[in-house]
Amino acid sequence: MKLLFKILPVAIALQFAASCKKYLDVTPDNVATLESAFTNANETQAYLFGCYSTLQALADVRRNPGFTSSAEVVFPITLQDPTVLGGAGGDAGFNLMRGLQNAENPILNYWQGYNMGLNLWRPIRMCNTFLDNVDKPTDVSQFQRTRWIAEAKFLKAYYHYWLIRMYGPIPISDVALPVNTTSEEVRQKQQTVDSCFNYVVRLLDEAVPGLPAAIQNSATEAGRITSTIALAVKAEVLTTQASPLFNGNPDYAQVKGKDGQFLFPTTADATKWQKAAVACKAAIDAANATGAGLYQFTSNGNIVHMSDSTKQLLALQGGFVESWNPEQVWTLNPTFGWSYMATPRVNADAASDAFAVYSNFSVPLAESELFYTSNGVPITEDKTWDYTNRYKTQPGDDAHRYYIKNNYTSASGNFHREPRYYSSIAFDGSVWFGSGNTDDNNPYYINAVNGYASYVPQRYNVTGYWAKKLVHYLSSAGKTTVWKSYSWPFIRITGLWLLYAECLNEANGPSSVAYEWLDKVRAHAGLPGVAQAWTQYSRNPGKYATKDGLRQIIHQERRIELAFEGQAGWDLRRWKELQNVLSGPVQGWNYRQKTAPGFYQVSNVYQPVFNVRDYLFPIQNYDLLTNPNLVQTPYWQ
């Protein structure tokens, strides 16, 4: 394990100090010693921003297992011919679903920083070095120093948390080891998983008092950590600790460290859910105190015509793609750079250059079927919705004209769906508001059968569904490409509401309070409350009134509300549900066909491979040789 840099060269820190705001790019030139790195306030702040740089890099969704292994998106385009992309980079994480993970050269290696992973021990070491030396400069105010210390503690906590989610029990790197540390002292062992979680929570608790509740000057400080963010992360950490993957998981009950100590709790502790619920409510209260709320759409483009239906879709999508809006509790500075992967070709300009619009973030059919009907219940349960004939076709009608092209033949499953379906996913026949056309009386639409979006050899969508949520409506592509960039949100207020509802249900079962927070999310999506929807429309009307039933509802609600946001993969892991999601083949339409009858045939893209061992990531075998005090992640021996 190369947690082992006995001293971290500051030059390495500077290499990682790239960020998306200019003030985070301030780094000292030609720094060779720690003494010069902490000679004054400017140099010290630059070192702190170096600690931030790895956090900024985590905003790249290709590095996030919560995105790449969530079964929400397929990339690259085919398993049979991955070279079609011409050697496109950044696809390593998507191979997790293909059964290509291994212990010799792990995918998304966050222990050593290979295969789209980042070496998280390095920024942890930087944080420790910073905390050891932040008292040296004499031109730093006490307020400033207190804030910097709190930021470094948060960063150290979050990097440890990311590692825990990936590997379970890890060594705790709490101090910067001196240069004369012996080899044996450097070779640290893993702590129990509960000790690891408790350490992260302790650091967050220490950080909160020293952080501002909100950023006052976004021009100079957007992206820095606040106490509200720290409280929201604490809620997420405690919820993860309480979840089945880490709380009495029988699959890990016999896992021991080299000293014979059990590394995972052998029995589930129900009180962890109550503790997590308290943390969720504290985070929500803190967010409310700083003005958090639901995003309201306001036009920032040349709108020709916009119906109330289209405005609702843009409000739902805007909570994610409109940077720094009140719905976003925690946003990272780097802008999302992959809109061209999620965009269909909807006009001749876009179709003229397949290299401008790749269009190959392909959404599996199963993900599209996750979204509710217009009645707010699953398509498998709605007694008014024709589930059996969902793969048949029908023409677009006047009632759906702002969602589906009028008179265009589309799958029956695309009709009578909830607003989040139309704001998050695009499909053959769906209206595409934007890309230079903001007239929803005569909008662009997707013709995946025999039009601009149909199969072309260079770049194509392999399922017939696009992640519309990831593309701002002001973006357009082709000969005149203009991408509307946005910063990546890590936590939104609706996610916190659902986290709170989940913890309440797990701690005490269904309650009016749990329904209240769940229904706040549903109301924003234009859906009836959970009790009303299930009572009136579900074939299982009493589902919401049982703990297990409400658990299923909340889990599905989170996957819908937070679709494509890099959350689902983490949720499915902590719930121990990802294995079920990946049990069947990834499917889509027969995208190479040029007629509707040929196109609308369900086709298998590939069969995912996911086993019990894949819930956690392997430590590279090399690291086990260099540090014999480590044990391999369960089932990777």
UniProtKB/TrEMBL annotation:
Keywords carried by this UniProt record: Cell outer membrane, Membrane, Signal
Keyword Cytoplasm in record: no
Record domain RagB/SusD: where: 328-636
Entry's localization field: Cell outer membrane
PROSITE patterns assigned: PROKAR_LIPOPROTEIN (PS51257)
Gene3D superfamilies from the UniProt entry: 1.25.40.390
Ranges of residues in domain SusD-like N-terminal: 106-233
GO CC field: cell outer membrane
Superkingdom to which the source organism belongs: Bacteria
Stated family: Belongs to the SusD family.
UniProt-recorded name of the protein: Starch-binding associating with outer membrane
Native source species: Filimonas lacunae
